[in-house]
């Protein structure tokens, strides 16, 4: 993925093409409709259940993950439990998991920087971050993050010193990862709500650090 391509995905919000309602359905769309209708017909699931699951998915945003990170920054005991079992740590804060995936939380430190990828498809900690960004699903990112992570991070504007180890974790269908970014300096007097505003989706994937309060001071 070129720097130009990444900047289009990350920094810009170009208008998309007009959605055409008469466009033909793709193979996977046809299969999804067929399987869904078959399950409903055989009363294995109901239309209401499908709607509720969609509502659950729509309710998940990076704000949930930011809440977890901010709470860990302020509470060492919770942080220890979170690093031991990410799923149960999130559940302590009332964040439910609607699937059987496990969550491993990886802590960034002055000597180690973590980067999350899914080389197979787009496995992602959706219960705490919502839907993945488009660039996360692109094959160039999925491939290059493995064999040249330092260069990929640089294209996001994140320069990792040579003496800092970069660890790339590959998500799977059952194991998902969340990065606990380092707490920014100058936030000693911040409340949990203020700290959460410094935590972005991309910082919990590991492509950028948490926001610097001097650049984004929460109100």
Describe it.
It is globular, with a radius of gyration of 19 Å. With about 220 residues, the protein is mainly alpha-helical. Helix 5 (about 75-85) packs across helix 6 (about 85-90) and helix 9 crosses helix 10 (about 150-155). The protein has a two-stranded parallel ribbon with strand order 1-4. It has a two-stranded parallel ribbon with strand order 2-3. It has helices at about 5-10, 25-40, 45-60, 60-75, 75-85, 85-90, 125-130, 135, 140-145, 150-155, 190-195, 200-205, and strands at about 100-105, 110-115, 165-170, 175-180. The model is unreliable at about 1-20 (pLDDT under 50). It has 12 helices and 4 strands.
Q: What is this entry, summarized?
A:
This protein has 219 residues and is mainly alpha-helical. The chain has helices spanning 3-10, 27-41, 47-59, 62-74, 76-84, 86-92, 126-129, 134-137, 139-147, 149-155, 192-196, 201-205; strands at residues 102-107, 112-117, 165-170, 175-180.
């Amino acid at each position: 993925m070129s720097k130009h391509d990444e900047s289009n995905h990350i920094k810009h919000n170009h208008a998309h093409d007009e959605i055409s309602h008469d466009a033909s359905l793709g193979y996977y769309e046809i299969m999804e409709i067929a399987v869904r209708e078959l399950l409903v017909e055989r009363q294995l699931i109901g239309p209401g259940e499908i709607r509720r699951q969609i509502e659950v998915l729509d309710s998940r945003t990076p704000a949930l993950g930011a809440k977890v990170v901010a709470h860990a920054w302020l509470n060492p005991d919770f942080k220890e439990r979170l690093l031991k079992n990410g799923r149960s740590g999130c559940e302590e804060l009332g964040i439910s998991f609607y699937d059987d995936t496990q969550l491993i939380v990886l802590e960034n430190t002055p000597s180690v920087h973590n980067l999350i990828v899914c080389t197979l498809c787009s496995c992602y900690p959706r219960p705490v971050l919502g839907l993945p960004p488009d660039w996360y699903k692109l094959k160039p990112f999925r491939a290059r993050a493995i064999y040249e992570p330092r260069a990929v991070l640089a294209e996001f504007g994140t320069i990792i010193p040579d003496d800092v180890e970069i660890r790339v974790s590959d998500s799977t269908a059952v194991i998902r990862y969340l990065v606990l970014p380092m707490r920014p300096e100058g936030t000693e007097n911040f409340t949990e709500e203020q700290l959460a505003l410094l935590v972005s989706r991309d910082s919990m994937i590991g492509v950028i650090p948490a926001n610097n309060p001097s650049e984004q001071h929460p109100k």
